[in-house]
Amino acid sequence: MKGLILTDKISDRIAVRDVELPELKDDEVLVEIRAAALNHRDQWCREGRYPNIQNGVILGSDGAGVVKKLGRDVDPTWQEKEVIINPAMNWGENQKAQSKDFQILGMPSHGTFAEFVVVKGDRLYTKPEHLSWEEAAALPLGGLTAYRSVFFHGKVEKGQKVLVTGFGGGVAQFAAQFAVAAGAEVFVTSGKEEKLSIARQQGVKEGFNYKKENWAEDARKVTGGFDLVIDSAVGDTWGDLLKVLKPGGKLVFYGATLGNPTGLDMRRVFWNQLTIQGSTMGSDSNFEEMLAFVKSTKIVPVVDQVFKLDDALQAFDRMKAGDQIGKIVLSMD
Ligand SMILES: NC(=O)c1ccc[n+]([C@@H]2O[C@H](COP(=O)([O-])OP(=O)(O)OC[C@H]3O[C@@H](n4cnc5c(N)ncnc54)[C@H](OP(=O)(O)O)[C@@H]3O)[C@@H](O)[C@H]2O)c1
After folding, report:
1. pTM for this one?
2. How far apart are CA 54 and CA 50, in angstroms?
3. Which of 26, 109, 157, 167 lies at a CB distance of 3.0 to 4.6 Å from 188, suitable for a disulfide?
4. 325 lies in which domain range?
5. Residue 168 forms part of a structural domain
6. Which atom of ligand 1 approaches the CA of 211 most closely?
7. In this structure, what DSSP letter does residue 58 have?
């Protein structure tokens, strides 16, 4: 089968190659991938900036497709079903944090940027009927991460003021959509004006350009401060984020794209009784709740652009440049 592997043999680090179809174990299934979606993790792997990366592995955590073969122990009713795959593997029983065996599909195990993927039968979920293949493929990792950040940790409530930073990002898109659907007043930041105007068309109250020096002051004037901020940039943006939180507010972050913060005003954190909470993907319960929420609210993931598997290099370069609004998708058709 064709698959997009990580390789150090070429300067681009990724290439579509023929890869042997893995054998099925008793608890596994073979899914024919119809569409797959990029996450920043895939680009981090390409740049060698992710732990435990191995050459020869097929990248990709997000996928939707049709179940083609079942291991002996898998419920036979899955045969030929249209599914999405939960890429969070071995979370374990503790809802507060993942187990030491936790892994994400697509490194070090073969992922979804291929014609077929082998996963455990318990990673299958019925594809939401209101979504196309591309939209369904866009949902799993970003939807799960955003859901846990906004609901499990953020405990968003109707009427609260919520700020989602970096609106163009794949996860940020879901966080904004979920918070809007939960009845919050949602505000966003972005480094690009055109992304801010798109946000306003999607139920977001107002957007602020984080490249403008006084954006945080403007945001405080307009909103009076936020109950909840959802972020994945970190770096030195946190000085501003701590300033725009209301006393008693919470900052939930699921990434650190810009690295660690320097010179953080920790007095502001204790004096204003702020909470800083880290979050990573989510448990199986979080995934089930996220899927039920998306089905009941008929939320549709924002698909930025769809590329053929053979054009995956262009798709990765688009993510690297940060030009996207929402999810970049690979179609296997
Ligand atoms: N812990 C987890 O489970 C988990 C899960 C998924 C992702 N992540 C991490 O979260 C981060 C985002 O992932 P993604 O897949 O959503 O990436 P993505 O689609 O590539 O989005 C990245 C976004 O970051 C925003 N950004 C860049 N500089 C910023 C700044 N100074 N302030 C605010 N936002 C800024 C940009 O938004 P604009 O274009 O709007 O400016 C950009 O679109 C990555 O670091 C990723 O590794 C972690």
Report:
1. 0.98
2. 10
3. 167
4. 2-139+301-331
5. yes
6. 31
7. B
